[in-house]
Amino acid sequence: MPSFFSNKKLIILLTSLIILIALISYSLKQGTRANWAEQFVQDVVGGFQYVINVPARYAAGFFQNVNAIENAYKENKRLKENLANYASVEQENRTLTAQNKTLRAQLGLKNDPKLSDFRKYSAMMIGRTVDQFNQLLTIDKGRVNGIEDGMPVITSGKRLIGSITKASSFTSKVSLISDDQNANQISAVIQPKKGDPIPGMIEGYDQNKDLLYFRKIPIKAKVQKGQVVITSGLSGKYPEGLVIGTVTKVTTDQYGLTKAAQVKPAANLNDLSYVLILERKTSVASDEGD
């Protein structure tokens, strides 16, 4: 009996060893393939991860979209601010360009040989009356600068705009040629391409039409639309050759003795910033001699 049990133990040991070797061999053949228990656990974990990860991805995508919208809003706001700044800079540049052009034109007037008999004083407009029937400007030059009543005032292009009517110590009033209260008549001429100058007088202004009246023109004078009216220089107050305006219409007075013309002012009287005041040098020398 003891021998049988000993053999039985040996047989069991050998059988177990054979089974173990077989399992190892089978495991090696299957490589990394999981058993049913591992597969079950893996599937359960995978399903749980899917349930968690899918909403998480949607949530992450939502917040990313919200962040993108916020960034787009900030970028749009920044671009609008830059556009506003650009518009402001562009407007400032246009203003400075216009001022520079005006000042260059005034510099050209100061060096104009036809105005060599006149002193020139540059001034800036600092005020204007709002009453359309009292066309007055205020400039930043006065008696301390040499400004006196009666001096003619022009702008770029030798365009006449008016004269000094009241000079105080530091500022002066300029009566525009469009001022109905201005009693001063302006001796003017039309210089045709051929023939003698056509004389006349600037008398009056039509506020509604923005036109000057050029009257006392000889009845036989051939005045045409588009001709330029300039100062004659005969009065002594205004130098010769200052541009007053352009003829727009020609008529005959009610008695048929003279002609009259409507004249569009050469200067834009509603857009003035810098002006030039003229003073005849000969009168200054005469005054000093007295």
Automatic annotation (TrEMBL):
In this protein, which residues make up the domain named Rod shape-determining protein MreC beta-barrel core? 126-278
Q: Which residues form a coiled coil?
A: 69-106
**Any Gene Ontology CC annotation:** plasma membrane
GO biological processes: regulation of cell shape
Question: Which residues constitute the signal peptide according to the record?
Answer: none
Q: Record keywords: Coiled coil included?
A: yes
Q: Which domain of life is it from?
A: Bacteria
Alphabetized InterPro entries for the sequence? Cell/Rod_1, Cell/Rod_MreC_2, MreC, MreC_beta-barrel_core
User: Is the keyword Coiled coil assigned to this protein?
Assistant: yes
Q: Which UniProt keywords apply?
A: Cell shape, Coiled coil
Q: What does this protein do?
A: Involved in formation and maintenance of cell shape.
Checking PANTHER family in the record gives:
CELL SHAPE-DETERMINING PROTEIN MREC
Describe the family membership recorded for this protein in Swiss-Prot or TrEMBL: Belongs to the MreC family.
Q: Supply the name of the protein.
A: Cell shape-determining protein MreC
Q: What organism does the record attribute this protein to?
A: Sporolactobacillus inulinus CASD
Ranked from the top, the taxonomy reads: Bacteria, Bacillati, Bacillota, Bacilli, Bacillales
